[in-house]
Design a protein that fits this description.
By secondary structure, the chain is an alpha+beta fold. The chain folds into two domains: 14-84, no CATH class; 91-336, no CATH class. Helices cover 25% and strands 26% of the residues. The chain has seven helices and 19 strands. It has helices at 14-46, 50-61, 67-73, 76-84, 149-155, 219-225, 285-294, and strands spanning 111-117, 122-128, 134-138, 160-163, 167-168, 178-179, 182-185, 188-192, 201-207, 212-217, 227-231, 236-239, 242-243, 257-263, 268-273, 297-303, 311-313, 316-317, 332-336. Strands 1-2-15-14-16-12-13 form a seven-stranded antiparallel sheet, covered by helices on one side. Strands 3-19-4-17-18 form a five-stranded antiparallel sheet, with helices on one face. α2 (50-61) packs across α3. It is globular. The N and C termini lie far apart (112 Å). Residues 1-7 have low confidence and may be disordered.
């Protein structure tokens, strides 16, 4: 009995055809993923999108553990060239002095807290009407270890606080024990990385009268100015009413941020921007600067950000720290004392 042409064809079950289609589809997706993985870095680092390139390079370069990302594709000279025009232009480094502001008016005990929202970030802004309530607290365990911002605040009898200065870790273990720069509390130099040498350091400090000083100064100069409380960090974002970042995003990329500023009438502005979540990616220094300008700051500076970014108020942390374990251990915090207490008193 002869076979027809039809009977000679090989047949496949319907399920087998569906399986083959799925395999081809997933192979296509895998190819697209690998293609994007290979081409995206090339597009970022060698493509025409200068703003994107600056943001990615800044984010990796200013996080010590991630510098290798930029170095995989660019030389140190190329990185410096990309970031150079974005960095803050600090006039105090060229000798400009911080202009005195009039703090003779009455300051009430009000503390205001605002929700801050940008296109890709959320945060909190605290306005402390009496600047003399702000002091520097530091870890009771330093130099062996830092403490959380909330712990430092409570240890100093404060009702509010934000993280302040940066730190160097022994073996990069994240203990937050060794401060970068200096810490001044109650008019005394608690710690100085340069051991009294006449070195200009990034400064965020308050005089006894409550005036905020930012920019580069030596510890000796700060004591001559009558500084009672201060840490070393930067860059300054606003000096004498003028922004320091005029081109680019500040050169530090997008990340959680902490910053502090002061209005010409004395109120202290404490700002935190959450980051590294789908809800809030983080902010550039330029965005932080612009927020503080909008709220009236005449002097302002960046503080340690990233996983350290924390704001504490009335017994709880009111922002969302990006560290998976919660609050990070830090060496210092700007602490707001209860109503009626002042820096250098009681």
């Amino acid at each position: 009995m002869g076979r027809t042409a039809e009977s000679g064809k090989k047949r496949y079950p319907a399920g087998s055809r569906r399986s083959s289609w799925k395999k081809r589809f997933f192979a296509f997706l895998l190819f697209q993923f690998i293609f994007a993985l290979v081409t995206m870095p090339l597009l970022i680092f060698y493509g025409p999108f200068e703003e994107v390139k600056g943001t990615i390079v800044g984010a990796s370069w200013n996080t010590l553990n991630h510098q290798f990302i930029a170095r995989l594709f660019l030389s140190d000279e190329a990185i410096a060239r990309i970031l150079r025009d974005s960095y803050a232009d600090d006039p105090t480094a060229r000798g400009e002095e911080i202009e005195k502001i009039d703090l003779s008016g009455e300051h009430d005990d009000t503390i205001e807290v605002y929700n801050i929202e940008g296109g890709d970030f959320k945060g909190k802004l605290m306005v402390v009407h009496d600047p003399t309530r702000v002091i520097v607290g530091y870890s009771s365990l330093f130099p062996e270890s830092g403490e959380t911002t909330s712990r430092i605040t409570r240890n100093n009898g404060g009702i509010a606080g934000i993280n302040a200065g940066g730190f160097l870790d022994r073996g990069w273990t994240g203990t937050g024990g060794i401060p970068m720069g200096f810490i001044i509390h109650d008019g005394e130099v608690v710690y100085d990385q340069y051991e009294g040498k006449d070195v200009k350091q990034e400064t965020v400090a308050f005089t006894k009268e409550g005036m905020l000083i930012v920019g580069k100064h030596t510890v000796k100069q700060l004591l001559e100015y009558g500084v009672k409380e201060g840490v070393s960090f930067g860059p300054p974002l606003i000096v004498n009413g003028k922004p320091t970042i005029k081109k680019g995003d500040g050169g530090w990329g997008i990340a959680p941020r902490t910053a502090i500023g002061q209005r010409k009438t004395g109120e202290v502005l404490m700002l935190v921007i959450d980051g590294r979540t789908l809800d809030s990616f983080g902010a550039t220094l330029r965005e932080v600067q612009d927020i503080l300008l909008e709220y009236g700051a005449v002097n302002a500076a960046n503080l340690d950000g990233g996983s350290s970014t924390t704001m504490y108020y009335n017994g709880k942390v009111i922002n969302r720290p990006s560290d998976k374990l919660g609050e990070r251990l830090v060496p210092s915090a700007f602490v707001v004392l209860p109503a009626g207490k002042r820096n250098g008193s009681g």
